[in-house]
Amino acid sequence: MGTSHHEPMQRSQQEWLRNRQNYGNGEWNYITNKSGIQQFFKEGIEHTKNYESLITIGMRGDDDKPMVDAGSIEANFNILEGIIADQRKIIQRVT
Fold it and tell me: CA-CA distance, 95 to 36, in Å (whole number)?
């Protein structure tokens, strides 16, 4: 089991759209809503940890658009690198 390239950590975009108010400020923006998005990711791994899965990591913008620009290519790269590191930690802790 797995998800598409813009639905990381075993969560679908529709789940986010229906429940975003339950996750921090509801923004799909790792800069302004890191803890809310991390909780969303954690729950996805918790729901599927007992199943064989191919876990998509990384992050696209809302509705498969580019992520919010952090101001420079280097800043964007650093944010994505941090997202992937955080996702790997969540996977390790939950599974």
Answer: 20
